[in-house]
Amino acid sequence: MDGTTHTEAGVPGTTTAATTMTTTTETPALPKVPYQAQDVQEVAEVLRVLDEAVKQKKRSAFTIKKTRFAVANSEAGYYVDSWKMNDWDYKRRDLPTYARGLFTTRNEHGHPSIAVRGYDKFFNINETHETRWENIEARTQGPYEITLKENGCIIFVSGLADDTLLVCSKHSTGDRGDVELSHSSAGEARLGQQLQRLGKTKQDLARDLYTRNITAVAELCDDSFEEHILAYGPDKAGLYLHGINLNLPTFRTYPSVLVQDYAEQWGFIKTELMVLNDIGEVRKFLESVAETGAHDGRDVEGFVIRCRMSPKPESMPYQDWFFKYKFEEPYLMYRQWRECTKALIQGRTPNFKRHQAITQEYLNYARKRIAANPKLGRDYNKNHGIIQLRDEFLAFKHLNGADAANFEQMYGGTSKTEVTKDVILLPIATIGCGKTTLAIALGHLFGYGHVQNDNITGTKRPPRFTRMVLDELQTHPAVIADRNNAQRHERKQILTDVKNMQLNATMVALNFVHDDIDAIRAVTHERVFARGDNHQTIHAITDAGKVVGIMEGFIQRFEPLDLSRAPDEAFDAVIDLSPTAGSRKNLETVVRQLHQLFPNLIKEVPSAEAMDAAVDAAIGEYAPALRHEIIDRGKNKGPSHTPKQNQSVKKAVNKKPLEYMGVHVAAKDVNAELERIFKGQPPATARFYKQLQQTRRVQPAFHVTLIHRASAKERPELWERYTKLHADAEAAAEAATGSVGATPPEVGKVDVQLERLVFDDRLMAIVVRLVSKDGHAGAAEAEAGQAKDWTCVNKVSHITVGTRDDKVKPKESNDLLARWLDEGSTETNGITDVVFEGKPLLQGAVRGVLSR
Ligand code: GTP
Ligand code: MG
């Protein structure tokens, strides 16, 4: 039984439940109608406590507001008092009643009585201790009546002793005297219509309600009166009866089947009902509906679950108890997506106000998917595949539902959470802005790939550069396409090439904003001259004059980023940097903005210390690979402060073994002689040289190899001599400067005399003679073109000018020259040789070159 102490008697003076309920088709056997008369003493006590609370201003007390209303049309001149409490006060444990919506009056005997009684205030799942699932599971008892939470305004209906029908909204009744129709009056008008249809009067209903000592609780849903979120057109508008409460301080309510039966008797619309006996099933059902936000093809806001609960089932009786299951985020967002998707499919404009950014992205995604597969759209309209499409979108974005619902707050609404790889960082810069430094620092922090345009020689550089960038993406999540891209046509080249080769790469401009040109000029000049020759092409020591001109050329040709048109409009994102700010600051800007833009690419911003170290390492340890000098990337042994620019070349590096000993000659001198020698030649002779030039296959730096490591075994005493010379020079330099330089020290000087240019269609070399400073080569050594102190192990001392492509190695010069010595130059062997007029003498510096 229900465990309460009231008497179970039939309702006096009314048709008995049994006869009335037979009209219901669904439930043949209806439960007994609950009835209990009001206890004057009990009601008086409740009112006393409530009145006290009205008067009391103590902070610890609950606050309650009492408002008196005259009852319209009451012949006896009844009034009612409405008692209104704050929502949160219902969570207290000391209330005389928990009725939400309570109107009291005095009955025909002048006794205090309850005129209208709402439900006990009930809470959403997890909103209170009692509504946590584990408590619900442990303390409640079925059957569980699940009713749809209708979406309108609540209306209470009851009768007074003089047969006046009392219609109230949550806290008031009657008209407020203003022009607008009040909720209770709108409810009463509706009620009048429904009774009229049945040929019944308001008095009939009032009398029945009074006799039963009940309040009918209904939801007024009517778009013509007031629009709520869900639509109630004329066919659906009306009063949805969802509960019948006994007018008692303690909550007692009719089982839902009786409520439905009553609705039928008095012309209310029935509230949908579902009864489950097992709480596990209840939970499963609710959560499954939450997934779609729809039930039986209808939108739902949530459900109210009616059952019985005991705070302590072993010792306390069960009582009528409700909780609600309201759909919240992410379900409300899912519902919005579903509606918008349907609008999309039906060619309407999706209308949405909440979750703007993520919903827009969802719709872009959905649009593409549906366009690619129309069946998806047709099925969707029939409510198939709704969850799947949504889940696929979330997977694509690397988000879960909760994060998606918080997308705006979490990511500012601008993030591309789906980007986890294939990001190309494309600088827009001029020389010395710090592109390479930034790239190396990013490599240290995140292992990003780095492709330097300066490392590419030969023909068709731009597409090869792009290809290399894309290749790096195979093994790195992001890559820095290290090139100035100062002009629009360069940006256009890589943006379109990438698009053509790999559609889904994300292009990010590292935009070195060129506003204060004078300041930029000053900073970059200072840096580049401090860098000295430590660069593939910009050799500030060797070619000081030219370098200024090259730098200025870039600045003059610079075309600022313009996102409003092609090609720059193709960038997916832009990060503004300052060429004068310093690489540490720029690094932080890049890292933070990448994290913001692509939270799944950079999940966490590294510590300040880590960024310090990365920049220190980049500035301190870098030397370009192309000149075969020391590289010590990947390790950071630098001091934690940022080193001064001119320390960058001197910083300590690991000592590497000698690769070869060579005589180095200035590139500009060799190039000048090559220009001179070809000037008077017929085009056919100059063709291969032109080819090498146009394909950038002329070496950027020239040397005569004296001995290579590979020959150390053949000529151990010579290898030892050179190794020792190198080591001694290094020790001397270290003693003088306190550190080992990135460029090995010079061990001596020797002039290089250019004798003949020898080439076929594969490579080109200059036959040289090394001339000691005293102007003479030793007699025997002179034969092989060698100076006394600077023995060369090669049969013919030479400078390799260039090879046709990477497949032809410079050391093949030895083979060419051996053939040339044997055969000379003939039509059949394809070898050409040209004499250097006047045998020009170039200055040479003997220096070791270390292994990489
Ligand atoms: P190019 O390849 O010549 O176009 O230059 P880049 O844009 O790659 O510049 P790079 O990173 O080589 O920087 C130029 C020089 O300035 C290098 O020697 C860097 O070590 C140095 N440098 C870079 N950033 C800073 C910085 O923040 N402060 C100082 N003092 N030097 C820096
Ligand atoms: Mg660079």
Find the CATH topology of the largest domain. Answer: Rossmann fold
The domain count comes to 5
Number of strands: 28
Treating each run of at least 4 consecutive H or I residues as one helix, how many helices? 25
Mean pLDDT: 83
Uncertain runs are 1-27, 627-654, 775-781
CATH architecture of the largest domain: 3-Layer(aba) Sandwich
Radius of gyration: 45 Å
Q: Fraction of residues in helices?
A: 25-40%
Distance between the termini: 90 Å
Bound molecules: guanosine-5'-triphosphate, magnesium ion
Helix/strand structural class: alpha+beta
Major sheet summary line:
7 strands, antiparallel
CATH superfamily of the largest domain: P-loop containing nucleotide triphosphate hydrolases
Beta fraction: 15-25%
What is the name of the CATH class of the largest domain? Alpha Beta
Shape: rod-shaped
Keywords: Ligase, tRNA processing
Enzyme class: ligase
EC number: 6.5.1.3
Pfam families: RNA_lig_T4_1, tRNA_lig_CPD, tRNA_lig_kinase
